[in-house]
User: What shape does this take?
Amino acid sequence: MNTEVLSGVNVAPSSTSGHFIQEAENVVNLNVAKETFFVEGDSKLVTKNHTTLVQPKSCLITTQVVYNPFSKMFENSKD
Assistant: This one.
């Protein structure tokens, strides 16, 4: 499996507003298609359309998946 270590990264590339990790030691992109990232160390998640979140330790971030009753399928949440 190939991974990519990033810094100051948008962890929601498909988002219209972006969700940016700041102040982390490293951000590792685990899965490009599913937008899954491992954030090492203390960090902040900063967005235009949500509250800034402070995470005092390493964490895993992935796209929220919701059920769409019209298509009767699970799909990534949209802004």
